[in-house]
């Protein structure tokens, strides 16, 4: 229904009465034509010429907020304009919640802008923990638009660390942090050290996201971050076992999913569990499709329930690699090498890597599990 | 298996009959790539050069306004691409280049994205790399001489002002911390001889802490009281920056590579190379799509990973007998030539995407790494060591690690006779230095200037 409420026509800054007292400063490329110039359009040239003028005069006023917003809309990666806008907001003592709302409208079209996300982070550092919880919801909305957006995940993980975790210790350096930059956790209030509920909800959040796309690696990383790196990280044997079960089920759903195998390896290595513990689980994924029906019969007899799904395309490279590593770990070099040879056949792009694995095995045949 | 047989009737990525957004994107990308897999591997050198020269002299179209804060990058990408394709800068254009780049210098110290912008680490790296290509002419108009006179001391203060208590750096005042910034800062500090222990304190540990369970590196990490939170998953761009940074730090922090899990890194990096059905290009993260820029960010790590694997295996010896490349290097060349290249000039992310300067530079750097074999050369190191002249200022003692920093960058050399050109030697592009994405000659010449050393000629100086 946009035609009922059309955008007002754009007015160049040179035609805006409130800017009539300012002399625009065109980009100065020097005496001779520069190399690799950009052929800016008139609208952008106009706005940035006024920005250069206030950049020189160091004006911090309401109209500067209008101007910087306009430039950001046209070019969200203009970090100087963002920096200037932030300074102006602080100088004017502007209500930062309003800025946050404005940014919420802008961000979905600029999800790949480092600067837009950094601006949001700066605002949160000012607004404090009371605003942080709704930010998790905002990040979820952003992820609905782009489920693998790197900046959004980084922002979400930063929120969790900065507002919902114990105070970071400062490392051994004599240099003091840049003012206003390093999070100070001044918001650690009487709610205590760790917001258990927030971190629990994060796990449920990754469950939902993996229901949507079990191959989304960002989600797997986030789950690892929450369970094994965050302040609630308690890699108890129970947690490790329940994560193994969880991942095994996801692998059964779609075995050719590197994200799930990598997560499995990550949690085994994190908990110093030998890969060979999971040999019975992984074996079926290395057998061809034709053998799966008979496998099913055996499994039923043994009352094992978790098997590759009926549509699984097997054998799967990641399972072959897993078994090869597990055997290598146990010192069964010859058996492991056979599998690496099979991997050379099945995954010729990584031939060099599989050969390298064979060589390293030969050098350290009975390396104990780290 | 020969290359053509790899690419004839390739199998699609298995989906196990479970369709998700990832598998849908994957399959549409594969259907764009498959028709191009049988294209001949011929580099359209002339068309690329014409395309680049147009950008250099006539300029970038309006759609590049979003790069207004990345003007040094535009120049650097174009110049480096031209040099790799065998272009030679005429003195007049080089002079113009220096003039343009010096207008990005911010009086507060550091280069900015353009005139009337603030200093920022990333454009500083791009400007210095561009000057490595065009700045060598001595005298008042010479870029290196101007850096000497006006910029080095201020740059050092600028860098120090960005340092955080955890060892990392923000990219500009009030800016974000990420691995690109750390890498760019280390490159500049190393090339301009302003690398000190004070500057890099805690950085090696910070970077190592960004290695994720997958083996690659994240953009940043957060020091919690009991642990480290890796902010973001393992990513090709950040992993290159992290690995190259550790190499640049080694002269001052000799134990850097004990801080990371090398086998896990090698496993992750090799896992990023796409299947034949994806043209054997690289992706930047697990379960994401291939993109020509990762031919450099991931493919470009090949010499670095190979070096570490060799060192770990005990250096020389039987390893010499192996084809010790870490990746399928001809596959990378095929992705560049058949999939990423446009016949009318320019290189791109993948089919359906337009070509741009960034993807052109990255694709060509990846192609170069895949064609050549570049390694640390003990002979070159010995030669440089023999010629080492103490300090630019004889009153000043050599700083700790200064000589080692010089050697660790300048000892990389091309292993002649070990190059492989898919599609024939006509496709040759000049080799790149694995730590900088500049030619080895550019790095040696510029560092020779700033360290006041007589540069060692590389025996295959075809790139200038």
From TrEMBL, chain A:
UniProt-listed Enzyme Commission number(s): 2.5.1.58, 2.5.1.59
Listed GO CC annotations: CAAX-protein geranylgeranyltransferase complex; protein farnesyltransferase complex
Top-tier EC class: transferase
Pfam families xref list: PPTA (PF01239)
Cofactor: Mg(2+)
Organism of derivation: Dacryopinax primogenitus (strain DJM 731) (Brown rot fungus)
UniProt KW Nuclease keyword: no
Domain of life (superkingdom): Eukaryota
PANTHER family assigned: PROTEIN FARNESYLTRANSFERASE ALPHA SUBUNIT/RAB GERANYLGERANYL TRANSFERASE ALPHA SUBUNIT, PROTEIN FARNESYLTRANSFERASE_GERANYLGERANYLTRANSFERASE TYPE-1 SUBUNIT ALPHA
Organism taxonomic ancestry: Eukaryota, Fungi, Dikarya, Basidiomycota, Agaricomycotina
Molecular-function annotations in GO: CAAX-protein geranylgeranyltransferase activity; protein farnesyltransferase activity
Protein name: Protein farnesyltransferase/geranylgeranyltransferase type-1 subunit alpha
UniProt keyword list: Magnesium, Prenyltransferase, Repeat, Transferase
TrEMBL record, chain B:
GO biological process, one term: prenylation
Cofactor list: Zn(2+)
Any Gene Ontology CC annotation: protein farnesyltransferase complex
GO MF entry, a single one: zinc ion binding
Residues in Prenyltransferase alpha-alpha toroid domain copies: 43-438
Pfam families documented for this protein: Prenyltrans (PF00432)
Cofactor note as given: Binds 1 zinc ion per subunit.
CDD domains: FTase
Assembly: Heterodimer of an alpha and a beta subunit.
Family to which this protein belongs: Belongs to the protein prenyltransferase subunit beta family.
Protein function: Catalyzes the transfer of a farnesyl moiety from farnesyl diphosphate to a cysteine at the fourth position from the C-terminus of several proteins. The beta subunit is responsible for peptide-binding.
Protein name per UniProt: Protein farnesyltransferase subunit beta
Native source organism of the sequence: Dacryopinax primogenitus (strain DJM 731)
């Amino acid at each position: 229904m946009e035609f009922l409420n059309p955008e007002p026509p754009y007015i160049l800054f040179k035609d805006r009465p409130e800017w009539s007292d300012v002399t625009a400063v065109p980009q100065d490329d020097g005496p001779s034509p520069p190399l690799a110039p950009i052929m800016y359009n008139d609208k952008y040239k106009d706005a940035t010429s006024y920005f250069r003028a206030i950049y020189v005069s160091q004006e911090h006023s309401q109209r500067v907020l209008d101007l910087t917003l306009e430039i950001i809309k046209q070019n969200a990666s203009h970090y100087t304009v963002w920096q200037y806008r932030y300074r102006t907001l602080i100088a004017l003592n502007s209500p930062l919640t309003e800025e946050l709302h404005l940014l919420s409208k802008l961000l979905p079209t600029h999800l790949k802008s480092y600067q837009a996300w950094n601006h949001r982070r700066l605002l949160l550092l000012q607004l404090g923990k009371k605003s942080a919880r709704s930010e998790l919801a905002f990040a979820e909305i952003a992820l609905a638009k782009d489920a693998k957006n790197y900046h959004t995940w980084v922002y979400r993980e930063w929120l969790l660390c900065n507002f919902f975790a114990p105070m970071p210790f400062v490392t051994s350096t004599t240099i003091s942090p840049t003012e206003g930059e390093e999070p100070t956790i001044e918001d650690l209030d009487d709610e205590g050290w760790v917001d258990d509920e927030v971190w629990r909800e994060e796990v449920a959040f990754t469950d939902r996201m993996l229901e949507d796309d079990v191959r989304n690696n960002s989600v797997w990383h986030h789950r690892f971050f929450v369970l094994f790196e965050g302040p609630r990280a308690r890699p108890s044997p129970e947690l490790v076992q329940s994560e193994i079960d969880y991942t095994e089920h996801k692998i059964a759903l779609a075995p050719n999913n590197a994200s799930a195998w990598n997560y499995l390896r990550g949690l085994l290595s994190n908990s110093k569990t030998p890969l060979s513990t999971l040999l019975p689980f992984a074996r079926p994924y290395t057998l061809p499709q034709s053998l799966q029906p008979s496998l099913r019969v055996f499994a039923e007899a043994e009352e094992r329930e978790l098997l590759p799904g009926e549509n699984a395309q097997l054998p799967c490279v990641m399972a072959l690699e897993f078994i090869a590593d597990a055997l290598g770990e146990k010192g069964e070099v010859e058996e492991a090498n056979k599998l690496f040879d099979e991997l050379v056949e099945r995954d010729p792009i990584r031939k060099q890597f599989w050969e390298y694995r064979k060589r390293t095995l030969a050098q350290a045949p009975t390396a104990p599990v780290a | 298996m020969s290359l053509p047989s790899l690419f004839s009737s390739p199998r699609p990525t298995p989906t196990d009959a479970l369709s998700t957004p990832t598998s849908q994107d994957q399959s549409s990308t594969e259907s764009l790539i498959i028709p191009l897999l049988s294209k001949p591997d011929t580099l359209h050198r002339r068309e690329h050069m014409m395309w680049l020269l147009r950008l250099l002299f006539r300029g970038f179209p309006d759609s590049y306004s979003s790069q207004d804060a990345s003007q040094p990058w535009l120049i650097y990408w174009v110049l480096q691409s031209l040099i790799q394709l065998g272009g030679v800068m005429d003195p007049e254009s080089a002079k113009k280049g220096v003039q343009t780049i010096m207008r990005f210098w911010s009086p507060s110290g550091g280069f900015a994205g353009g005139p009337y912008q603030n200093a920022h680490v990333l454009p500083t790296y791009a400007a210095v790399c561009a000057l490595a290509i065009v700045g060598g002419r001595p005298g008042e108009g010479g870029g290196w001489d101007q850096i000497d006179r006006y910029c080095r001391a201020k740059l050092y203060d600028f860098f120090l002002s960005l340092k955080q208590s955890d060892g990392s750096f923000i990219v500009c005042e009030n800016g974000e911390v990420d691995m690109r910034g750390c890498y760019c800062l280390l490159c500049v500090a190393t090339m301009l001889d302003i690398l000190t222990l004070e500057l890099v304190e805690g950085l090696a540990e910070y970077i190592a802490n960004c290695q994720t369970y997958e083996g690659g590196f994240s953009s940043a990490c957060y020091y919690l009281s009991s642990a480290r939170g890796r902010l973001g998953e393992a990513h090709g761009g950040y992993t290159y920056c992290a690995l190259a940074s550790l190499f640049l730090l080694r002269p001052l922090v000799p134990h850097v590579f004990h801080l990371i899990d090398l086998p896990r890194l090698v496993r992750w990096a090799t896992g990023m190379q796409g299947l034949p059905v994806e043209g054997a290009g690289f992706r930047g993260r697990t379960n994401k799509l291939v993109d020509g820029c990762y031919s450099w960010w991931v493919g470009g790590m090949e010499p670095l990973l190979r070096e570490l694997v060799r060192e770990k295996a005990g250096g020389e010896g039987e390893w010499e007998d192996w084809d010790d490349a870490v990746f399928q290097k001809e596959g990378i060349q095929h992705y560049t030539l058949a999939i990423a290249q446009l016949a009318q000039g320019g290189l791109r992310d993948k089919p359906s995407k337009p070509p741009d300067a960034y993807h052109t530079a990255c694709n060509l750097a990846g192609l170069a790494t895949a064609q050549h074999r570049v390694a640390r050369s003990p002979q070159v190191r010995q030669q440089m060591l023999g010629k080492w002249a103490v300090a630019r200022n004889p009153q000043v003692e050599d700083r700790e690690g200064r000589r080692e920093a010089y050697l660790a960058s300048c000892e990389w050399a091309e292993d002649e006779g070990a190059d492989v050109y898919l599609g024939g030697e006509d496709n040759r592009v000049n080799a790149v230095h694995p730590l900088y994405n500049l030619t080895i000659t550019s790095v040696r010449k510029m560092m020779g200037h700033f360290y006041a050393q007589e540069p060692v000629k590389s025996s295959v100086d075809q790139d200038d």
